[in-house]
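Example pasted here:
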Amino acid sequence: MEKSCSLLVHFDKGTPALVNEIKEALEGNDVESKIDALKKAIMLLLNGETIPQLFITIIRYVLPSEDHTVQKLLLLYLEIIDKTDSRGKVLPEMILICQNLRNNLQHPNEYIRGVTLRFLCRLNEAEIVEPLIPSILQNLEHRHPFVRRNAVLAVMSVYRLPGGDQLLVDAPEIIEKFLSSEQDHSSKRNAFLMLFNCAQDRAVNYLFTHIDRINDWGEQLQMVVLELIRKVCRANKGEKGKYIKIIISLLNAPSTAVIYECAGTLVSLSSAPTAVRAAASTYCQLLLSQSDNNVKLIVLDRLNELKASHREILVDLVMDVLRALSSPNLDIKRKTLDIVLDLITHRNVDEVVLTLKKEVVKTQGGEHEKNGEYRQMLVQAIHTCAIKFPEVASTVVHLLMDFLGDTNVASAIDVAVFVREIIETNPKLRVSIITRLLDTFYQIRASRVCACALWIIGEYCLSLSEVESGIATIKQCLGDLPFFTASEEGEGQDAQKASQPVNSTTVSSRRPVVLADGTYATQSAVLETAMSPPTLVQGSLASIGNLRSLILSGDFFLGAVVACTLTKLVLRLEEVQPSKTEVNKTTTQVLLILVSMLQLGQSSVLPQPIDNDSHERIVLCIRLLCNTGDDVRKIWLQSCRESFVKMLADKQRRETEEIKAKAQISNAQPDDLIDFYHLKSRKGMSQLELEDEVQDDLKRATGEFTKDGDDANKLNRILQLTGFSDPVYAEAFVTVHHYDIVLDVTVINRTKETLQNLCLELATMGDLKLVERPQNYTLAPESSKQIKANIKVSSTETGVIFGNIVYETSNVHDRMVAVNTVIQDEREFLDHIIKSTNMKCLTPPSALEGECGFLAANLYAKSIFGEDALVNVSIEKQADGKLSGYIRIRSKTQGIALSLGDKITLKQKGAA
């Protein structure tokens, strides 16, 4: 049971304090015991207990206490007890409370007066408050500001009670006089807030009467002024011109909170370029002046919202936004780069890229532990700039190539991908990129980066010198052959194996000899050779971790890439090298390298032998080098590049489609009113108002005028809870206010039957508490119901809200079939179901690949009468090899579901 109280205390209801113990402590003279007893009583009341017998004890023994803590807890107790009976009438014993409250309002201590006035703000019973009104008004003239500011709030609370305007008829006039003479900022804020809520005309009159001193008002009062402006302008948009001048003047306020609110209010009221530019500049200043990371992220979100509707204005401020990269927080850097990349144009791309280059150079210092991740973000940003504006590629590609050997593998891979794309899209940079890549190739340490760099070398080394340099670079990084050799004693062998006799083999050799008469003959010789376990030969380049050490570590995929690259280079050498002798010599050297890699993969020196795919690729390269045809040459030297070009074109097309999809499509209604700017009277209008009128007219003409921005924000907070095809559709509108979360759930019965006992069952994880369980409802066919659920938040840590919707119905719209089959392969069983039911698999083939023992797929079909059927197959392979699981059938028509279920049950056991 939830009760209204300004105190939220955790209390374990499993160990409640006994009422008699509480009474004894309250009747005693020990102040500390009274404080503890009052706390226990309050916590019991908050947890739904009723303790009526304590009231008289508290009146007798607690009310006279002068202790401030006791008095504060007493007011909390009085706040949560029931003050009315079942008919809504005030209980007679409340008269005792009124006398005590009157005494407190006249107490010589200002703290007692202040907390009592604050307590009166939380009373909803006019009968209790009415006798206290003279004392409340008397406190408006108290010497201490703490009392005065709470007295104003008490006046506002009484005036807003049902019938309160009759109890305090002249309250607005009293508060207006008080506001004119008050000097305390908090008291003035409360007084202006009272006029704002209860007498808006008086608040507006006071604002324009003292408009010349508005910059001297305190932060709290200025915030209320901004709230008043938003409310007035929403009600009467024709008057926003004079209020915008006030907002612009408040942009120079010393309070950053006021400046932030001014910028937000300015954007919400006006779409004039001058106003939007002022707001954007204010956000940029806050972005640089504030040290709190959360504030920076919030400001970046506001700039991102401005970018969506006023991109052309944000383009001029892109360098100011980019200065936020000075923050050490990676989230701020990432969000800043995301905003800036959407604001790049031909005018500012050079400045942006120059700044990004400077940031990349800074990451080499190693001062921050996440420099590698930040460098990766910068590389991706520069990549985007270079793709959009190819003319800047030449200024950054050589700088980024220094990071191909970066220890951060992800950053190095991004650089390699960037270089690969730039060398294709910018043919003028090909020679310089290849030259630089060959010079720095030995620095690359990651296998994936080496593979990408080798592909670039194989595809874009076109001239004779480039091809020869490419082959020489790869040979140098591979080191001397062979990769392993046999020795007298294998390194790494233990003493037992070293003491055993080595294996021996007989090798026959045939060689020509010259006889005495000058003729030739063949002589056979038999040699005994001793063999010992083979050992790896570590070349001189192994210490820098390049091709040789990577291959010797067992990376035969990279070895296959090396083989393909050398093959491409040899094939191209045949086209550009006129000397066949040199071509044959190079081919022989490459073949020797490939054969050595195969021998290494098939030897016992490595813990894992070469995989089949890599073995087949290397063998294919050997065959091509031994016998090359024109068709094969075309595939290796042209088709691969053509596929890459096609991939880049598809990528560009997808990005273009995504941009178009994100663009808002707005259409003007044919009966929308359009005011002609040139026919309007401009008398008395400022330049800002004129711009605002022009922008509004343009938005109406183009259909971009949003009538209510709040509606769009509401739509963004709607969460879909169930599927569109479910019998019960549900969506929730989430409202978060301080430590309260309100879920307004709309439930729609999409069936033709009445649903009995429909209930929204919610559960929470983390520091969240469900206040009360939603009740059960009966939903008529195709009707809807609004269900509200309140959730308390006790901390800002991450929490989860989940649940389900249960109901009773006489009809079943889905059916589940248990898997019972002799088929033991998941994919084979799925294909059998598809063939048997003549359905189409909606799950993409890529999601069904692999061998994990589980398979889930969605099937769909439509009958000739237009009836839809959806089948979900979920199966698991058991330890004994059999398949288990369920097949769920969903359809709006019961007959379709039943017939499909019977068919699957009949045919799922085998191929028959």
